[in-house]
From TrEMBL, chain A:
It is a multi-pass membrane protein. The chain crosses the membrane at residues 51-69, 81-101, 107-127, 134-157, 185-204, 224-253, 265-283, 295-314. Coiled coil: none annotated. One of its GO terms (biological process) is siderophore-iron import into cell. It comes from the Bacteria. This is Iron complex transport system permease protein.
From TrEMBL, chain B:
Residues 1-23 form the signal peptide. The keyword Signal applies. This is Iron complex transport system substrate-binding protein. It comes from the Bacteria. Residues 45-310 form the Fe/B12 periplasmic-binding domain. Gene3D superfamilies: 1.20.58.2180, Nitrogenase molybdenum iron protein domain.
TrEMBL record, chain C:
One of its GO terms (biological process) is zinc ion transport. It comes from the Bacteria. It holds the Pfam family ABC_tran. Gene3D superfamilies: P-loop containing nucleotide triphosphate hydrolases. Keywords: ATP-binding, Ion transport, Nucleotide-binding, Transport, Zinc, Zinc transport. Residues 251-277 are annotated as: Disordered. It comes from Rhodovulum kholense. Residues 8-243 form the ABC transporter domain. This is Iron complex transport system ATP-binding protein. Belongs to the ABC transporter superfamily. SMART domains: AAA. GO terms for molecular function: ATP binding; ATP hydrolysis activity.
Length: 322, 348, 277
């Protein structure tokens, strides 16, 4: 069912776009008989990398959200909670301000995202120790606020005619400029982050009980949580550095997935991965088809995510206690 | 900051000396918003509210400038009059990123504020508010392309430089006439489709009728981006593929250098046929940035690119003439090469 | 008794936070099939002692032994295989199914990348059946009563397969009937040969369930030994700093009461809250 849904979303994503290609054209091109050479260029160089990137980023953000919600034992946290998104955003925006090439901008975003989490953890350790979930979250919020201030400062310093529109657009998230090289650059980091989450998926669920309880069950809770946070952060930073800041997916998709699977992380993760991928592919298809102009993904996910989240809240108690 | 303060101090002393004499000599004009404002007969210190106004002011009366909205870049300096190169960056009153501090504005002691650009209720209210707060007359001038000759004359009069205003206006009128003559020789179906590419990825652009792409419309290029919102917008490479523009004009050197190797731009007619042109940008852009009188030379440059046969424009001579007349700087051989040499495209 | 190796043993244990000892020279031993109750006023350091015994915090002095091996030599999984833990309440924010929660007991015996399989599921179902709550398996814990949740946690401790179980006030938030049910389940554990370390605020429960009792006063152990012998009225009076009266009810059970809430006429049997419910 799930695989079918994901396949359907991917197929839809491959069919839709401003360049006129009929489903038959797309199918012919895929099997190596393009109706004309331009169809092959559009499909292989532009549309498919974009569909793949969307799937990858949607899956990454959803997995990171599910992991954060589990290890922080808080259904309302998302990849932005530790300042990762803001930190990565600050790095990338700084790259735009400095006029760096695209790859360097992505690297800056990635490095700053990882740097943010390192800073959050260092502060949390110095204050109280990583075991204190609230301390970690509050440190994350404080560092996120700092990164937000940095972003505002960069926006103020940016050339309003040239750089500011690019920065603003980037901050709202987009896959408009995605290419094969971007997918190739983000893929190793996303896979490297997802692997530990997938391999340890049952054990990670036990962290939802709280440190003491998990430890008495035989889980090295502190170490495992650190590994999960680092993995989820790696995945988030890689996604943000390629696609900009796309909100809501990391918060909303795990909840939707939990409606199907319940809280067991080993069941939740695959469903969240598939749902995140499918959702992002469809949202991105909408982003390039609604108008001649690209609609930022962040706007679409917020328009979708807000109501869905409120609906989930109204259902309350079904996926989380209290 | 120190330079700013020093300039302000010197300027302040000068202004004080002149103030008594000037205060008495004013007259009343009606600006583009219909506001009656009392302006000095001979404004000596003029604050430009944004980059378009600054460029206009620079061409008409450079010695009345009190500062730049943004500091000119190193690549711009050789093309600017020496006495304006070190003017302080004061920030801007209008447009995105309102950065000027009214106290900084006042410490520059302007006797007139000039804004040049779109006339809307927002800008009218801004003008009214700033004038009330600073006690300095604030004139807003309509900034569309066709009104450039009239604007040059009007502002020339306002700045007590009617002769210079007339000369520049005559050049602008001649330019428009020249473009019209060329267009008369080029039937509609031979006018190419054009895409304006901005940003390192080339996916920022501007719609038909927007101020950023206005000169493409004026030289008869068919902007592939249909009518849309004013200002910049972002599109996908796939959308550009669907549009299949015959000519790409870009203001981004990075994009111009790499587009022929970028996989998502393969097969776009302009890229395939080597019709990607990088617009010069020093000291002011040829296409927009800012959308001011600098676009006059852009019109000729673009006409020459779009209709190399009909236009018959010696672009080097034209640039030399325009820069000398408008910017007060005559570019030498090396400067010209630097300016136009980068305009080469992969096909050349 | 001294010849048998205790399941859980503390020798000269000092516990506390940040180098400041709350309790010193604590000694205790928990044996197979026995229930050992910890009694003491609030804030005396029972929880800290509990956490130290579970290896959740390091001792300030002395040592804890599980099955004769020093706790400090054991890995987290090895500790969990020897000593299970039943918390006072369940604090997870997610709506787990009861069976999934019981399945977690398998973590100590599974490798890091393993997921519970058919064998673990059978164990978990058996643990639920043992407590007579096998019908609760597929139910989400958010739909369970407090008593049912406590029973699910006890089932998890059974599924964990440890010979000793530590319980931190397992009946504190339960109503009368559920207290009795959980009490029975605790006795059932002991009957199966499991040693139970029970931290409780209810002297009646301690006397009823406990084979041994350890009375903890500020600074250390007041007394330790067979529950009925240790829990004298005099010691309980000293422990809780209020006059405590001890009565033997028909059937031999002990009942402890303090001054009546209605007045200051002193401890009178039959007027305390515990008696009235």
């Amino acid at each position: 069912m799930l695989a079918l849904g994901l396949a359907g979303a991917l197929a839809t994503g491959a069919m839709l776009g401003p360049y006129p290609l009929s489903p038959v054209d797309v199918a012919d091109t895929l099997i190596g008989h393009p109706p004309d050479p331009q169809a092959a260029i559009v499909l292989w160089n532009i549309r498919l990398p974009r569909v793949v990137a969307a799937a990858l980023i949607g899956a990454a953000l959803a997995a990171a959200g599910a992991a954060y919600q589990t290890v922080f034992r808080n259904p309302l946290v998302a990849p932005d909670i530790l300042g990762v998104s803001q930190g990565a955003g600050f790095g990338a925006v700084l790259g735009i301000l400095l006029g760096l090439p695209v790859l360097a901008i992505q690297l800056m975003g990635f490095a700053f995202g990882i740097g943010t989490i390192a800073l959050v953890m260092a502060i949390a350790l110095a204050l109280r120790g990583m075991g204190q979930v609230l301390v970690v979250v509050l440190c994350g919020m404080a560092v996120a606020a700092l990164a937000g201030a940095g972003i505002s400062l960069v926006k103020l310093m940016a050339d309003p005619d040239d750089q500011l529109p690019a920065i603003t657009f980037w901050l709202m998230g987009s896959l408009a400029g995605i290419k094969q090289a971007d997918v190739a650059a983000a893929l190793p980091a996303i896979v490297a982050g997802l692997l530990p989450l997938i391999a340890l998926r049952w054990r990670i669920g036990l962290l939802a009980l709280g440190d003491d309880e998990a430890r008495t069950l035989g889980v090295e809770a502190g170490r495992l949580r650190l590994l999960v946070i680092l993995s989820a952060t790696l995945v988030t930073a890689a996604a943000v550095s390629v696609a900009g800041v796309i909100g809501w997916v990391g918060l909303m998709v795990p909840h939707m997935a939990r409606l199907i699977t319940g809280p067991r992380f080993d069941r939740l993760l695959p469903v969240a991965l598939a749902m995140g991928a499918a959702l992002m592919v469809l949202v991105d298809a909408a982003a390039r088809c609604i108008a001649q102009q690209e609609v930022p993904l962040g706007i679409l996910t917020a328009v979708l995510g807000g109501p869905v989240f409120l609906w989930l809240l109204a259902r309350g108690g079904r996926t989380w206690a209290e | 900051m120190r330079r700013l303060r020093l300039t302000a101090l010197v300027a302040g002393a000068l202004a004080l000396a002149a103030a008594a004499a000037l205060a008495a000599e004013t007259h009343t004009i009606t600006d583009a918003t219909g506001r009656q404002i009392e302006v000095p007969n001979d404004p000596r210190r003029v604050f430009a509210a944004g980059p378009p106004a600054a460029t206009l002011l620079y061409t008409l009366k450079p010695d009345a400038m009190v500062g730049w909205p943004r500091a000119p870049g190193a690549e711009d300096l050789p093309f600017l009059r020496p006495e304006t190169r070190d003017l302080p960056a004061l920030g801007r009153l209008t447009g995105k990123g309102d950065t000027v501090n009214l106290e900084v504005l006042l410490s520059a002691r302007p006797d007139l504020i000039v804004d040049y650009g779109t006339v809307t209720a927002t800008y009218r209210d801004l003008a009214r508010r700033v004038q009330a707060q600073t006690g300095t007359p604030y004139a807003l001038i309509d900034g569309s392309l066709p009104t450039i000759p009239a604007t040059l004359r009007r502002l020339g009069d306002l700045l007590a430089e009617p002769e210079r205003g007339g000369t520049l206006a005559a050049y602008a009128e001649a330019t428009f006439a020249e473009i019209d003559a060329i267009l008369a020789a080029v039937p509609e179906d031979r006018r190419p489709s054009v895409y304006l590419a901005r940003g390192p990825e080339g996916i920022e652009t501007a719609a038909r009728g927007s101020i950023n792409a206005e000169i493409i419309d004026r030289v008869g290029g068919r902007n592939v981006v249909g009518a849309g919102p004013d200002g910049l917008l972002t599109v996908s490479p796939e959308q550009v593929q669907a549009w299949a523009p015959e000519v790409i004009v870009t203001i981004d050197a990075d994009f111009a250098a790499h587009v022929s190797a970028m996989p998502e731009w393969q097969g776009v007619p302009a890229v395939r046929d080597g019709q990607v042109y990088l617009a010069p940008s020093a000291p002011f852009g040829f296409i927009d940035s800012p959308p001011s009188v600098n676009r006059l030379i852009g019109l000729k440059w673009l006409a020459e690119k779009l209709y190399p046969e009909e236009a018959r424009i010696d672009i080097e001579a034209e640039v030399t003439r325009f820069y000398t007349l408008f910017y007060g700087v005559t570019p030498d051989r090396a400067a010209l090469d630097g300016l136009l040499g980068t305009a080469g495209h992969p096909g050349e | 008794m001294g010849r048998v190796t205790p399941l859980v043993e503390a020798r000269g244990l000092a516990v506390g936070h940040g180098g400041r000892a709350l309790l010193e020279e604590v000694g205790l031993g928990l044996h197979r099939g026995r229930i050992l109750c910890l009694l003491g006023p609030n804030g005396v350091g029972k929880t800290t002692l509990f956490r130290t015994l579970l290896g959740l915090m390091p001792p300030l002095g002395g040592a804890v032994f599980l099955g004769g091996r020093p706790l400090s030599d054991l890995s987290r999984a090895e500790i969990a295989q020897r000593l299970a833990y039943v918390p006072q309440t369940l604090t997870t924010p997610f709506a787990w199914r009861a069976l999934d929660l019981v399945l977690m007991g398998a973590a100590a015996r599974l490798g890091p990348f393993a997921r519970p399989g058919a064998a673990e599921i059978a164990r978990a179902e058996a643990a639920l059946a043992l407590l007579g709550i096998d019908d609760l398996g597929p139910v989400e814990i958010t739909r369970l009563s407090g008593g049912q949740r406590q029973m699910v946690l006890i089932a998890r401790a059974i599924a964990q397969g440890a010979e000793a179980v530590a319980m931190d006030e397992p009946t504190a938030s339960l109503d009368f009937a559920n207290r009795i049910r959980v009490g029975k389940a605790i006795r059932g554990l002991a009957a199966r040969g499991i040693g139970v370390l029970l931290c409780t605020h209810d002297p009646d429960q301690a006397a009823d369930l406990g084979d041994e009792a350890v009375l903890i006063e500020p600074g250390g152990v007041l007394a330790a030994g067979p529950a009925a012998e240790v829990m004298t009225a005099a010691r309980m009076t000293r422990l809780y700093d209020i006059p405590v009266r001890r009565d033997s009810l028909p059937g031999g059970r002990l009942h402890f009461s303090g001054p009546s809430g209605r007045g200051d006429e002193g401890p009178v049997a039959g007027t305390s809250a515990g008696q009235n419910v």
